[in-house]
Recover the amino acids of this structure.
């Protein structure tokens, strides 16, 4: 392969070559972050495709999730269990800056794609390894999805209402936070490489991502024995900060955390006596469980007499932090999401276009971009293998033997 850098577009990561050997969410989301900011990402997936293509909603038999989480990437379909497929993957990685993989520890080694072998051929390679429990430790071989690792990391115990079993957030929050940690680790390792010339392994565990959200409770347990529990919609030790009902059956979140904001809320409610009530006279007093429940009941009685939109408008005018609980339909109607390019129309060869979540974060001088939607399985096999010097006849033979797939 020609080592000359030919980046697809501008971006702070333009010029970096990334190979992705990942499935489902955390790994593909990590590589998508890198791709959004200009990295040249080649995704190697099995001939039947990444399982993420079967997840989420489909429209006209098109995976809408794959259109976005696989965007800005090339797709190469290879059977890595075959010697020829493994050899081709090795050649791609030999010319890469970053490899992102999220297989169970040991799988890449069995495929002949372990870090020791890869780094001999490519000493500057940064290998990002995402797994449930990390590459070492007694639980390293356990299979682990984000949900499993939320339970293990203490997060699931904290999620939901106190009078009900632990709930789950209806989103892959741990997977996406892991993707951010992994992308940050990759960029840090690349930055360090500019001085040392050497690559390294970035070991990212889903359970550690989940556990990192428990930061405030770790020293508290060691010093006081405090075991936190589910608190529902409330912010522990801080009130009022909760969901409150509205007259039409909706919900609004009000966060009057400081004394000044609480005073503005009380003035809006026209209940000045609350400021003189010892239970609510300070942040610490309002944060006591009994006082919190009493204050929430008073506020709920007031909010339930007003509809969500007018209540939200009045709270904003009084400079009390608030928001209605948005549905995806509300988001599509809100001008702020459009103004910040968080709902982006991306051309699609079969559907005309799909609307996708915009690029995060926003960089003022070298912003990220969405260059194309997620490609079909193996859509770029011929192009990418040709860059390795594989002839068209050889590619056709690989496809015929089901070593490779081409859309």
């Amino acid at each position: 392969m020609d080592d000359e850098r030919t980046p697809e577009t501008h971006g702070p990561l333009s010029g970096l070559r990334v190979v992705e050997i990942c499935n489902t969410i955390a790994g593909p989301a990590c590589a998508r972050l890198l791709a959004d900011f200009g990295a040249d990402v080649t995704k190697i997936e099995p001939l039947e495709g990444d399982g993420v293509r079967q997840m989420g909603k489909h429209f006209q038999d098109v995976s809408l999730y794959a259109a976005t989480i696989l965007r800005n990437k090339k797709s190469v379909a290879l059977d890595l269990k075959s010697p020829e497929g493994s050899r081709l993957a090795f050649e791609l990685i030999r010319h890469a800056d970053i490899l992102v993989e999220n297989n169970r520890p040991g799988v890449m080694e069995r495929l002949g794609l372990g870090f020791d072998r890869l780094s001999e051929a490519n000493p500057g390679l940064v290998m990002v390894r995402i797994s449930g429990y990390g590459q070492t430790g007694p639980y390293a071989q356990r299979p682990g999805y984000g949900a499993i690792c939320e339970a293990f990391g203490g997060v699931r115990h904290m999620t939901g209402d106190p009078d009900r079993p632990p709930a789950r957030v209806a989103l892959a929050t741990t997977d996406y936070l892991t993707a951010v940690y992994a992308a940050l680790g990759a960029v840090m390792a690349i930055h360090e490489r500019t001085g040392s010339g050497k690559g390294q392994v970035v070991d990212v565990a889903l359970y550690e991502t989940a556990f990192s959200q428990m930061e405030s409770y770790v020293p508290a347990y060691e010093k006081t024995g405090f075991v936190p529990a589910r608190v529902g919609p409330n912010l522990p030790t801080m009130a009022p900060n909760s969901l409150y009902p509205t007259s039409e059956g909706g919900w609004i979140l009000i966060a009057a955390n400081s004394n000044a904001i609480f005073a503005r809320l009380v003035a809006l409610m026209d209940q000045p006596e609350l400021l003189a009530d010892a239970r609510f006279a300070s942040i610490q007093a309002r944060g006591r469980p009994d006082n919190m429940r009493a204050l929430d009941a008073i506020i709920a009685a007031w909010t339930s007499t007003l509809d969500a939109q007018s209540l939200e408008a009045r709270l904003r005018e009084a400079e009390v932090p608030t928001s209605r609980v948005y549905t995806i339909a509300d988001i599509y109607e809100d001008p702020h999401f459009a103004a910040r390019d968080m709902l982006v129309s991306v051309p699609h060869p079969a559907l005309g276009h799909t609307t996708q979540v915009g690029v995060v974060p926003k960089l003022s001088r070298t912003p990220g971009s969405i260059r194309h939607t997620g490609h079909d399985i193996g859509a770029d096999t011929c192009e990418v293998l040709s860059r390795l010097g594989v002839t068209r006849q050889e590619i056709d033979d690989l496809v015929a033997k089901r070593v490779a797939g081409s859309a």
In short: The two ends are 22 Å apart (CA to CA).
